[in-house]
Amino acid sequence: MKKIASVFIVILLSVAVKTYGQPDNKSNKNRQITICNPLNLNYRFCLDKPSRREAADPTMVNFKNEYYLFASKSGGYWHSTDLLNWDLITTQDLPMEDYAPTAVVKNDAIYFMASADKPVIYKTADPKSGKWQIVNPAFPIGMIDPCLFFDDDGRLYFYYGCSNKYPIYGVELDPNTFNPIGEPQVLFNSHKDIYGWERSGDYNEDIPTNPWIEGSWITKHNGKYYFQYAIPGTQFKSYCDGLYISDKPLGDFTLAPSNPCSSKPEGFITGAGHSSTFQDKYGNFWHISTMTISQKHMFERRLGLFPMFFDRDGELYTYTAYGDFPFKVPDKKISGPEEISTHWMLLSYNRPVQVSSELPDHPKQYAADENIRTYWSAKTGDKGEWISIDMKKECTVNAVQVNYAENETQIFGRNSGISHQYLLEYSSDNKTWHALADKTENKSDVPHDYIELRAPIKARYIRLVNYHIPEGTFALADLRVFGKGKGTIPTKIKEMNIVRSAKDRCVADLKWTKSTNAFGYNVRYGTEKNKLYHNYQVLGIDSITIRSLNSTSKYYFTIDAFNENGVSKGDRIFELE
């Protein structure tokens, strides 16, 4: 009897180890409530060499209070009931190899089309089934980057354009046949001479490449039409969405006072362009965007989800501060970004790393450098390869993000057998280890696995042990740890010097006195003192050059300092004429 009881206790302990620290989605109290960009989707491997994953140009629609996400060349589309968990729907009916799909909800169906020389329009009343039917087999406008917009008066509009030469166009469609009514109208084109965010380059250096103006999306709010467009190129960190506004769906469109309306120029993963805007079931606005890696191939991309807001004056902005840190997905209507903040800070940046092995070109420090464009790789993909991060002091850990890098893979297309298996552990002394997340039998493809802990734990060390990867070597862009340290937050920044270029008013140089014990800074700025909607977040430096300004606008700046313990918000405003 004692032997049976002992075995029973061992089984219970084993089960406890497998679930310790992981969210329990069956309980409202313990269910997952946060996400972390880039989204942890089973991104498809591209069909051509080199082997790499891609998803971009996303369209998200709310259909009967559930969410459907379409993206370029993804071999299917995703479905979610809560914006937290996603399942892939495959279909033989849609052109899944075409770029930049668009979708619109009209009555009780979703309508779909994608970029093509000879486009076809489809619809379904049951998107979960993967069954679609053709509505218009020969749409007469061949184009790239379509956008369908169904107005609340029953009229239907179509926008398109993707070029480093030609403008964005718009035309009304017959809502029954989906054929054009009249001729397409020119809406606007790039003006990079006066709008810095439209200039090519990772940092809008205006390299000798004309910017691509593309990715149309329309949002109607309080009788106004907000036209969002992508610029300057999907491979750049500066990839963003600009904004025009009109009282009519086909214009005239006027540049919004705060531009770009969606931008994430720095951080672990950058870019917030070629997006779509939608409302969740509670009425909150969201912006789902293309984010760039662009190392194995220019079109190596991921997706990010950001909260979006209209202020009291009707200005539209995307909140991207700490945009690749965990944040809450609300279950009610919210009024501002503070309501979804977890206040969990980055604990792993630039911390000491130990590994089982490493390749010369992919050293261990790349796993903690907060840069998705670099990565550490073990010498093999064998079970038992491992990586450990020392946070230097015992911290409160709330979440971990595991970002795989797919080094030396030869995978192409979708494969239902792809999975990642690992054991995530924690320790206070680097000797005794406890299970934090046991995914040694995981059957899912989780390239950016995000683990929100059921309850926070105290730890100094985090270790990830490989059990299985799809192919290649065990490699991580970063092993990111979030929570709170036990020290003090940084001192406030009191002084910042800002100089606008006399030759080019789109450019400003900023320099500040480093804060005590800060490792990062978030510059907030805007065209009004109380509307500092732009964020430029950096690590380990005390100066930046911003080249994305509107040359005709006055600006206001402040700067926050942060470390593993929290944020000191800037309270001094600096003016730039």
Layout of strands and helices, then pairs:
Blueprint: H1 2-19, E1 34-35, E2 44-45, E3 53-54, E4 59-63, E5 66-70, E6 77-80, E7 87-89, E8 102-106, E9 109-113, E10 121-124, E11 133-136, E12 147-150, E13 156-160, E14 168-173, E15 180-188, E16 214-221, E17 224-231, E18 240-246, E19 254-255, E20 270-279, E21 285-292, E22 301-310, E23 316-318, E24 327-328, E25 345-346, E26 353-355, E27 376-377, E28 386-404, E29 421-427, E30 434-439, E31 448-468, E32 475-484, E33 496-500, E34 508-512, E35 520-526, E36 534-539, E37 543-546, E38 555-563, E39 566-568, E40 574-576
Give a concise summary:
The chain contains one helix and 40 strands.
Structure description:
The structure is a single chain. This protein is globular. The longest helix is centred in the N-terminal third of the chain and has 18 residues, at 2-19. By secondary structure, the protein is mainly beta. It has 3 domains: 50-340, Tachylectin-2, Chain A; 345-484, Jelly Rolls (Sandwich), CATH 2.60.120.260; 496-576, Immunoglobulin-like, CATH 2.60.40. Mean pLDDT is 94; it is low at 1-19 and 22-28.
